[in-house]
Specification:
Elements lengths: L14 H4 L7 H9 L7 H12 L7 E5 L3 E3 L4 E7 L10 E7 L2 E6 L5 E6 L7 E11 L10 E10 L4 E5 L3 E3 L8 E9 L4 E11 L9 E3 L6 E3 L5 E8 L13 E3 L1 H15 L4 H6 L1 H20 L3 E3 L9 E11 L2 E11 L1
Helix pairs in contact: 2-3, 4-6
Length: 340
Amino acid sequence: MMITIAVCGMAPLRGAQARTEHMPAVAAAAHRHTEGSCVAGDGAALATMYAWAAPASSPAVTVIPAATNVTVLQSFAVKVKVGSEPGAPDPTGTVVLHAGGYNVSTALQAGGEATLTVPGGVLATGSNVLTAIYTPDAASAGYYGGGSGQAVVIVYPEPSYFSIAAPAITILRGAATGNTVRVAVQPYRGFTGLVTLTAAITGAPRLVHDLPTLSFGATSPVRIVGDSAGTAILTVTTTGNAGLASGNGPEIPLAPAAGSMLAGVLLLIWPANRKRWRQSGMQRALHVTAVAACSIWLLGCGIQGRFISSAGTTPGNYTVTVIGSSEGVSATGQFLVTVR
């Protein structure tokens, strides 16, 4: 506690101020005081003498946690500020922070402040009192005594949760096999319960036809009962390219009709006046060329073909996002589907 003294009607001096003013007059004032005299000008010096002999004041110590509500595994910073006395330099020395069974110390920085860190896991769940104790060094011992301050932090249990993961897959468009992927739901911190899964395509080629469809079927929701991961099967359905080259779509037999079509073309282009036709070499050449071209085209069509009805799923990379939700908990996972 700071002691102030007023002597002979002089203005009182506080301890820190008294220790820094009128020091040359202390001895003389004390001598005259012992002789029973009290003269003008001696009051301040005598007050300084008594204030110097008084114990240093206990400064205010403020403890400021960065968060007053944390989880049991969460670390956080704590700022400690030691108040200064008017007319005295800023306090210097060390601060020790007690947090449960954990203790950490550091030196005061400029302005009488220090920052310390309480790591996760050192505080128990519930209400915890943080105590900071200040000890002055030699430079501040003449101005400040020791001091302490406290703050309360509430610690909550760390919540349980789960994660979602799935491997990348490559599938052929239109394929009915090899188009499934196992989605794993991994529990942590004792999570148990039902996890409902949904999937959506969140990334695709720039121009897309027939987006793949996704379904978990009866494998969702996933039940988690222990520490082992639960799994669900996601089916990725695509459509193939329908056309002559693919062999998809309704068949159109072209070879049986080739002979009839050729005969029709020959009748159309056969000259009515054979005498004139024989006399014109240019006309004969054109007729022969036309017949040959039509014959080649019809031979090329002599296959079992199908007309194009759909472009099918566009080949490329598709990003699939899976969202899992349970009571009060959710998680997200992603994987890549490559369609060829």
